[in-house]
Amino acid sequence: MSTPSNTTTTVSFAGDGYTSIELFLEREDGADDATVTLTAADGGGSVERRMTAGMYREHVVVPIRATADSRIDAHGCGIALAYLAGGDGLIDRGVRYVVPDGDRVRESGVRLRPVARWMNDPNGLCRFRGLYHMFYQFNPYGWSWDDMHWGHAVSDDLVFWRHLPVALFPQELLQRDRDWSGGAFSGSAVAVDDQGRPCADGDEAAAIRLFLTRHMYHEGGEDSLDEVQVTALCRDGMTVEDERVVVTRPNNDIAPDFRDPKVEIVRRGGASVARMVVATNLPVAPHAAYAVDPSATPGERPGWFTDDASLDRAHAALSQHPDTDRAPAIVAFDADRDDLGGAVWRYAGPVLQDVARGDAFTFECPDLFPVGDRWCAVGGLMKYRDAQGRFQPVRWYVGDLGDGGRGRGDGDGAVGDGAGTDAGAALSVTSSDLCDFGSCYYAAQSFADHRGRRIAFGWLVDWFGVRREHPFAANGAMSLPRELSLHDGVLWSHPVREVYDVLVGDAIASADLVESGYVTVPVGGTSYYADLQFSVGDDDGDVDTAAGAVSGNTAGTGTDDVPDFDVTIAADAGHGLAVRLERRSGVTRLRTEGMGTDSVEFLSHVTRVHRVEIFDDGDVVEVFLNDGEDAGTLLVDERLASRPAAFEANLPAGSTASIHSLGAAAGRRP
């Protein structure tokens, strides 16, 4: 017998006021008896816990003495992950991860990521009793995707996060039989009052109402796939209970791939109604009325079907074939009452179907929300590469809900404000594009906070094999929080104010270029923020130079093209690695060298650029153009991530460049 990979058999820790240790155990092959023993260093005795017979994985909670140093020894099993929990004020202090002896906890730095193991989709975003909550897809057992749990974290400011105990677990059968997979798939949250009704102000809410997909699949059995939508309640902001099924497939047109419920408030028949959107695919012919009009995406070249990001179009065509009779779709269900705990969810019909990208298998992680005076749907295109080679891109679709444009939003989008008027299910789409023009932004989810802002996070996923596996390392991270807004039918996204307040530090260097020229700035660390602004012609043809101060909300007014520029965001000549942002003849793009993404064209739709913001935190680069008119995100090879950063750029005359420190140590964290 051998200990399962990515596990340990011994961890030591100080109680430090916590009252329990939560262990994620994996049984050794062939081990009939698997136990963990807690021993207090002060001679206070020991406690033994035995894995349940027949379980090859199990979450085990062991009480500890809050003031004692202790050690856990595992026999017949390995410890995949462990953290201290319990005790007073846990939601304010967070859990403390216990790492294998000789290892260390890695700080998350600029963005939310797990201390270790696999993370994917953001789930259950909400504001509740003074804190922002984010649940997320989590595999505590390894580096890669596996049976899904819901991790959980809270924040005071959307930037710095405290991890809480894992909130949801896979179905027990999945922990007994390796041939089954699935678990607690993605979903959303609504803050509710003591009557179960959605709250306009989550700070005054009584509980969090969760919605998610329960997924089951037996290896090799295509007909075994089962996905249902469930709801559960979280009263204390940590403990989830009272789970029950609320939505199953209403007809056979809806595919078995039927998941990721997102609940929002719309107005129908003069009353506010909770609407759940779910991702699936539908037959094309019977649902032509719901197809996205091709005029919403003029001139866009078609992509192709593939479930492997490493396959180009020619190789994918040899072995992988889409079902051209079906296309990705988002469908809706409406609650029949205000009490979401007791509501019956009735099928309201399709919201949209993207026939133009019909080679995609299905949507994932759908969203539907009011923005400005319109409505916006969002979805990730599963098993699809677009014409530029981006894998599983996320698209937004802006339009009106209901017949004759009667679904136009009339509020700021906060839950319960009644945004939208008489909203039918179908979205009449007038414009559509990508949420992010980079390589890794996926499974985006939004929510409305107590200030009326529409805020989104995306999962930063390594489709192209940029990251390298290490013992007790994290695979997955979240984007910076982005505030969404609508400008002339285009969805913009820009870092929230808090990012500038607490992450962006003092200026390292600044430059005003009277003539075009080359700028280089040694940063002194692995992270930095750069703010580049260019002289552009205003509507009268005069030249205007934007101010260089860090503001986070500067509005651009320029209309004339600026000259070409070239920014080296990160580079290591010795390994032939680089990440660049460049503009050539009106085309703005991100470009990599020496990575798995070199063949992909990361093209932005923006042709006139007056401002570029770069957030480089070592292993992730997020770029924002023109205060959020477009955004692009790339993962960075770890050989670049560990090097001292240096900002280099060839900029046009009249530019300003301001380089700042970035991160917890550099920012102005309260």
TrEMBL record:
Identify the residues that the record assigns to the Glycosyl hydrolase family 32 N-terminal domain, covering every copy.
113-279, 345-495
Q: Which GO terms describe its molecular function?
A: beta-fructofuranosidase activity
The protein's matches in InterPro entries, at most eight in alphabetical order, are given as: ConA-like_dom_sf (IPR013320), GH32_Enzymes (IPR051214), Glyco_hydro_32 (IPR001362), Glyco_hydro_32_N (IPR013148), Glyco_hydro_beta-prop_sf (IPR023296)
Q: Where is the signal peptide?
A: none
- Quote the Pfam families the UniProt record gives: Glyco_hydro_32N
Enzyme Commission identifier(s): 3.2.1.26
Q: Does the keyword Hydrolase apply?
A: yes
Q: Name one GO biological process term.
A: carbohydrate metabolic process
PANTHER family attached here?
BETA-FRUCTOSIDASE (PTHR43101:SF1)
* Annotated family: Belongs to the glycosyl hydrolase 32 family.
Q: What is the protein name stated in its UniProt record?
A: beta-fructofuranosidase
